[in-house]
Design goal:
This protein has about 575 residues and is α/β, with parallel strands linked by helices. The chain contains 22 helices and 18 strands. Helix 8 links the parallel strand 7 and strand 8. It is an enzyme of class 2 (transferase).
Amino acid sequence: MNHTERLTRYTANFVDELARRGITDVVISPGSRSTPLAMMFTEHPSIKEWVIIDERSAAFFALGIAKQSRRAVAIVCTSGTAAANYFPAVVEAYHSRVPLIVLTADRPHELRDIGAPQAIDQIKLFGGFVKWYHEMALPEASATMLTYARNRAAQAVHNAMEENQGPVHLNLPFREPLTPDFTLDHLWDPIGEKRMEQRITSFQGKKQLSEGAISLLLRRLKEYKKGVIVCGPQTDPEFKEAVTALAEQWQIPVLADPLSQVRCGSHGKSVVIEGYDAFLRHKEIRKRLIPDFILRFGAMPVSKPYLFYVQAHGDAAQFVVENETGYRDPAGNRTEFIYADAAGLCRDLLREGKELTFDSEWLQQWQWMNEVAQKHLWSGREERVTEGEAIRALVEATPDDSCIFAANSMPIRDVDTFLKTTDKKIEILANRGVNGIDGLLSTGMGAAVSGKPVTIVAGDLSFFHDMNGLFIAKRYQLNVTILLINNNGGGIFSFLPQASEAKHFEALFGTPLDIDFRHAVFMYGGKYASAQTESEVKQLLEESYKEEGLHVIEVRTNREENASWHRKKWNAVTAEILENWG
């Protein structure tokens, strides 16, 4: 057996096992050393390949596919700095718990540390930001080594998908020649079944509290009268119905982060409080709303006022529910962790805790404040559209069964503020693992692979930072609308103390770009339009959803005016609440 046959059979068994374990998509960035993997993935009948030139964009694109589909996605690149360009997306995947199979091709061992071109130290390149790392052996085609190749592929998928999902990294060294031979017989056949019995097989279930633990938790909660359920970012489609059913039975408020998916859908929403970010900004309101307990599901919400609220009431009993193990509590309070499937726990508490009653006036207080917030946030129309009004138009225009992918900094905060509850089925996604602005367009393009209408809400900096992501829409004719909110710089900093440092603010924080983005949109074959009013934003959005391809709708705003407009809204909310609080 010659080198080419050994290379071909080894790589074929590895790729085929990934497919058998559920990998349906691979994102490939072109390169020479990765030739065996790239060609083998492309040849496999069960795997869809996506070819993205820029490795950083490619990794975020895969992240978007995996985030939306909730399945592991493979990424392939050549050796050298190509692999290093994966780093931002790998870090985001690790912290946002998204499964990626990172496959980096490498020089063989004899070409390392001797000055060979395109050779860097790729051993454990991503450090602690992957769940598992393995350096693959050089290709061989003995029965033992083909079994090894399949077992490592199975282990990679298993490790990426088990418990808290996340990225795994396999480094694959290859010797030249690198081109596989697809004329070989039985290319995708595994070794005999007896030999394959050693393959990893996993049977996973959801964590569930015992009856005793449920009874103990309910006895604890029975001591209290004023509770708050908080829903942080998560994507479980069963959760929103389960948690709202529980809260309606107990008659306690549900503070729903936009990324919790609880604000949108056909489930009951009478106890859902979506305007809490607006009125919890006032210290006096936070002080008066004294909870006996806080029951939080998932990660910390986007809202900083909510963080202040939790910190102000550190003496309240606080429980955090995680589907798997983990510790996510930046508030620094004494917190008890409950490790159980969130939807299942809600159903168990609903079934066993029907006799629990809480203070109905407490819920009514939150509902009244929520109504006041929504009244002011959604009232009035400016002559020239503001950033908040642009999001209001998006909420109204977005079609049913669609996705909004929000940038970090101001866009996700405006989505938090202006996304009111709706019966429309809208999935809200964002890269909140490490909250960076990088990779936004590419990740949103990955979400669009599902075929659902996708609207990416981008600031001008996040748009500029990932303009290469526009190539994906052009290359694969994806239907994507981008709402580009251009305030010529970093709008979030106008709300922070740095804004008072006039001498250095613009250069270090405002960072104006002064770019006409129309040219970038046209370069990538997209359609461009600008909107001056809220009604124009809504109309242009609705028209974009009726047409195929890439559409960019730009809204130009002023950072200082935007900060002032937001503060007027928030002040009006808190003023009415404090004036009428009984």
